[in-house]
Amino acid sequence: MTSSGDTFLPRVELTDDTSLLANEAAAGGATATANANIALVKYWGKADEDLIIPRTSSLSLTLEGLETTSSVCFREDSTQDRLFIDDVERHGKALNRVSALLDLVREQAGIQAGAVVMSRNTVPYEAGLASSSSAFAALALAASHAAGLRLNDTELSRLARRGSGSASRSVFGGLAVWHAGHDDPSSYAEAVDCPLDLAIVVVLISGKPKKISSREAMRRSVETSDLYDAWVRANPRDLERALRAVKAGDIKALGEVAQGNFLGMHATMMTAKPPVMYWMPGSVEALQAVDELRQDGLPAWATMDAGPNVKVLTTAADARRVEDELRLRLPRCAIHTHLAGPGVRLL
Ligand code: PMV
Questions:
Q1: Together in a domain, 221 and 293
Q2: I need a surface site. Which of 216, 218, 237, 345 has the fewest CB within 10 A?
Q3: How far apart are CA 198 and CA 40, in angstroms?
Q4: Which atom of ligand 1 is nearest to 131's Cα?
Q5: What is the position in ligand 1's atom list of the atom closest to the CA of 52?
Q6: What is the tally of structural domains in the chain?
Q7: pTM of the entire structure?
Q8: pLDDT at 178
Q9: What letter does residue 340 receive in the DSSP assignment?
């Protein structure tokens, strides 16, 4: 729902009538908030496109400050779903994705009613960090609750996964591992204990919507990149090293795995046919700045997702210095620190 593709969809400004509906969703149903997460060991490629079963297990950090709050209200008088994101009614792809998740909820709850969904994103700066992880985790909890279902964390993670793979991890605060599994019941995330106080410093290179969705980019990597199989083979080793580093409280080992892992993922995109290149000149500048910081002795390792923005893994204690040093080197970029954030919750 915060996915950048939304920007291309026809927009319908709120009229008095739709505004009433949106308020009804907030008042009569259930409301949940979820935080976005950033993967340190990535999910890239699906084994099952319908069920969203990934080819690899992944590890992520849920972040404070990047939130989606969604209200869902089922209405017996209608079978139509309506979706409002940041006070604008959405149709097309965004609505279809939301309706597909609502269908799963309706099926489990044995209801037919249409829903009004009102979703708000509280990001402290312009788009570009839009993530479907917070959106679908919030939707899964709000919709299931509004329909009378009381799902446990595993069930909720599986439901959120059907909206967007990464959303399965936003059910949990802090670090979460998403076990790839092989079918619907076996593919879910769970929390990972972490003795490290981690932080992510986000360097915003561009807030513009991406031209190629992560869905399309990962499909193309799976189907056409010669490097894709090597990327999948490297996953168990990366995940095992990352989890061992977390357990040992070793940020250096964790950072090195995270950096290598994201570079491997982008290598599969760059070698897809036709290639997917999310990097911009500013991304390379930021990656070089992160290298310099590390050479100067600061704990800082980069990761990137399906876009040009660079996220820097560090510790909460070092985040301020990392942020200051990056600002000196990248004066044109918006730079913000995000500490570990909470899991999805009802309001
Ligand atoms: O959940 P999706 O479809 O938005 O895919 C997210 C993929 C990456 O962000 C690039 C990696 C990840 O594990 O979150």
A1: yes
A2: 237
A3: 11
A4: 4
A5: 3
A6: 2
A7: 0.93
A8: 98
A9: B
